[in-house]
Amino acid sequence: MNPTTQPEEDREVRSDMLTRAAASRPGDDPIFALHGEATRRAAAGEDILNATLGALVDDDGKLCVMPTVFEAFRTVDPMRGAAYAPIGGDAEFLEAVTADALGGRASLMGRSVAVATAGGTGALHHTIVNFLEPGQALLTTDFFWGPYRTIAEHTGRAVRTFSMFNEERRFDTAAFEQGVHDLLEEQGRVLVILNSPCHNPTGYSLDPFEWRLVVEALNRAAKRGPVALCVDLAYSRYGAEGSDAWLGAVEGLAPEVPLLAAWSASKSYAQYGARVGALVAVVQDPGARQRVKAAFLHSCRGTWSNCNHAGLLAITSLMAEPEARAASDRDRAKLVRLLGERVARFNELARPAGLDFPRYEGGFFVTVFTPHAARVAELCREAGVYLVPLKGGVRIALCATPESKVERLVNALASALERAE
Predict the structure, then answer these.
(1) Is the backbone peptide bond immediately before 197 cis, with ω within 30 degrees of 0?
(2) Of 320, 341, 369, which residue is a domain's last?
(3) Does this model's pTM top 0.85?
(4) Residue range 300-308: average pLDDT?
(5) Are residues 78 and 215 in the same domain?
């Protein structure tokens, strides 16, 4: 044996092969870890209620799908579906998704640009890297979807929050405006991300009055520096009637405030795996609009390069072809009714049980407030009920909870809250 060659088992593995930041990153997502534990217990024969994961399932626990979506995939021309998509997405997709995201409002569509993204997550990524400098923070509610922070930190940015609810459990517009003011003073620009309708994790949807106050606050702030608003539309198709009020409000944004809409097919078409999304930007100045488009295209090329072409083509047909659109709307309506029945049952039982939660009219999740979230979630797990602990509350995935089990969920949660205090 060559004396300079050490046996494999004797070699010391360097501890600095990863960068310092990469070496300290967590592996598994905590929600998926809880889901995995619940799944293992159920497979072992325990009676488990798993209200952790954000996917809509039927009353038998099977993933809800829309038959029209799979029919659309089946009819995609193989030669087109197998080919690279344009970096920004097919023109037909971009036209259709812009109309869908902006409610067909000509006043917004006429000043817009769009790119295809890898799901709504990709749209959020492009928003964060193009409207914040490295080291700066986005602004969002103190209850928020955890991957906002993951995306921000992975791209050298951060997250700053404001108190989402006031004492009446309404959107705290005063805290919002103060958050915008403080961050603008600190870093010279502000990117706001608001997830509404059907906020994850609270289920809250801003009403027309709240949206008007948000727009007015942004317009005041824009006189002092660059301000941008991103509306995360991931769950918008499950909102109650009138939850599209944001569209009317954002028509009043000042010309210098860009509007960004993060659109996703994951929830709206019950198609989580295809990773079809889009980022739509409404920018009044034509020159600025083209610079935004170029920045988005550069981000596409620098991340996934091209999106899932078969997915783009299939979803385009469901949005652009009248018969296919009508059929997919009927499929979705069944899912909205299924979820709506669970929401109604939760509202019926939760208030009398003493649960504290905000207005909940639709959406995959609701949050019950408690300062003892970790303990409450632990006690619920002991009873075979899996929820997600957050800072200030526990998140319940009604999307994964059959209506017949809502009473069990509410009772377990009420008992855990009482024992945790």
Answers:
(1) yes
(2) 320
(3) yes
(4) 97
(5) yes
